[in-house]
Design brief:
This protein is α/β, with parallel strands linked by helices. It contains six helices and 15 strands. Strand 4 and strand 5 form a beta hairpin. The longest helix is centred in the C-terminal third of the chain and has 13 residues. The mean pLDDT is 96. The structure holds fe (ii) ion. The site of fe (ii) ion has 7 residues, from loops.
């Protein structure tokens, strides 16, 4: 069985038998895909290790693409391995980060993965502790009771958007699969859907729009927009829904 859900933001309460009774019949051979903003790694260190142990105790394998709310510093410390035909990082034996620009074959179907997204909850700024006016700016925002800011290396990372090399790798991978897969799993929507949802475009949404036009695929699942909605027959926006893919 392969299921999918949207942003968990480190709150995994949806994976309980009262909210998701199907999990009683699942095993580690079954996969739960999280479409980004998993949040399993957030603080770095022991608190994350405890969280990962709790996820390892769930009856299924967790496989997530990264979103914009992941601790990329902590994530970068895990070695890159291989799983079902694509590159991954094993945070625990059954808690797996699906890297960008990969194709995985699960239960005979192919899945193209491309994590990342632009943060939009930053209207009061992205503050860098390396800047001399950092504390002054934080104090001013706290005094003004403004909370829509993030801090470089603590709650915001430039790696939230893919690098040129990651885009190039995605293109190479799709070349190798003749631009045809069964499923596409991303955090961000492509530009055409972002516009329909009233959300801004960026380099990643434009890249995904190119993918949408060029790739032959059956279904595209994404998160980021904090809403559960079937955009149309082939595009599914996920937040708290848990859907069965296969
Ligand atoms: Fe999110």
């Amino acid at each position: 069985m392969i299921c999918a859900t949207g942003d968990t933001h480190r709150n995994f309460s949806r994976f309980s038998p009262d909210r998701f009774p199907e999990m009683r019949a699942m095993t580690k051979a079954d996969t739960m895909i999280i479409c980004g903003d998993c949040g399993a790694l957030w603080y770095g260190g022991r608190r994350d290790e405890i969280q990962l142990e709790l996820l390892e105790d769930l009856p299924f394998t967790i496989a997530f693409v990264d979103g914009n709310h992941e601790n990329f510093t902590a994530l970068s410390k895990y070695p890159v391995g291989e799983w079902n035909g694509g590159k991954v990082q094993f945070l625990h034996p059954h808690v797996i980060h699906l890297m960008r620009g990969q194709v995985f074959t699960l239960e005979g179907r192919t899945f193209f993965t491309m994590g990342g997204a632009s943060s939009h909850d930053v209207e009061d700024g992205i503050l860098d502790p390396a800047n001399p006016d950092y504390y002054e700016r934080v104090l001013r925002l706290l005094r003004e009771e403004r909370r829509q800011y993030r801090i470089v290396g603590q709650s915001w990372w430039p790696e939230e958007l893919p690098s040129d090399e990651e885009y190039a790798e995605a293109r190479r991978t799709l070349d190798a699969h003749s631009w045809e897969v069964d499923y596409i799993i991303t955090h961000s929507p492509p530009s055409g859907i972002a516009e329909r949802l009233g959300r801004p475009r960026d380099t990643l949404t434009d890249f995904l729009e190119e993918i949408r036009r060029k790739v032959i695929y059956r279904q595209w699942l994404f998160g980021h927009c904090h809403e559960d909605r079937a955009i149309d027959e082939r595009h599914l926006l996920l937040w708290e829904w848990i859907v069965r893919v296969i």
